[in-house]
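Data availability (excerpt). The following record was deposited with the supplementary files.
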Amino acid sequence: MKALYQVKNVSKIYQNMTAENHALNQVNLEIEKGEIVVILGPSGSGKSTLLNMLSGIDTPSKGTILFDGTDIGKMKERELTNYRRDNLGFIFQSYNLIPNLTVLENMEMGANLSSDPLSYSKILTVVGLSHHKNKYPYQLSGGQMQRVSIARALVKNPKVLFCDEPTGALDEKTGKKVLKSLQQINRDFHTTMIIVTHNPSIALMANTVIKMNSGRIESIVHNKEVIDAEELRWA
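Predicted structure:
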């Protein structure tokens, strides 16, 4: 089966006055449809740069990134916009909710970007917010706000969810609730998930774990067993 993403010899090079800085250096990997992928590494390892390459926010200096067989690097700006709108959802450490809109109205912002949105009520049930749909962000806890951001990203029915430190601002109990929601979404909708994190414990809930350092991939591990999010030991 053809991989959803194929990354071939990708480098991202920034040139300054005296030297080249390789944010990514000869990266090769494949991501299968329906996987949960966790990317681990210290600050400056290239995790976020790789996420930007895969999502079309930035383009490689060298190499090729194929999404479902199509070369992202050859897309024009309008094509990249359509690629992100039609295929991708984004979840960040900062929730980026619109404060004067309710939970349901924030979700509508995501749904309006899609030609085939999912059921609001079903998504609210999955993320455990059915009784909070008419509340505003200031009336919610941090974990609830993060789950609203997940619902907003998911309701547009993306093929891939990009999650950049989704539990970085949360305590252990709340973080596990958010991860449980992501795991449930993966099981129910077969959504491919790519999670960037500093927390090595989260790797145990992934199908594939990519460890990075200094712009290179140090290892790719395929977990034989996947741990339920509630059973993770928090690092």
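Summary of structural features: The first helix runs from residue 47 to 54.
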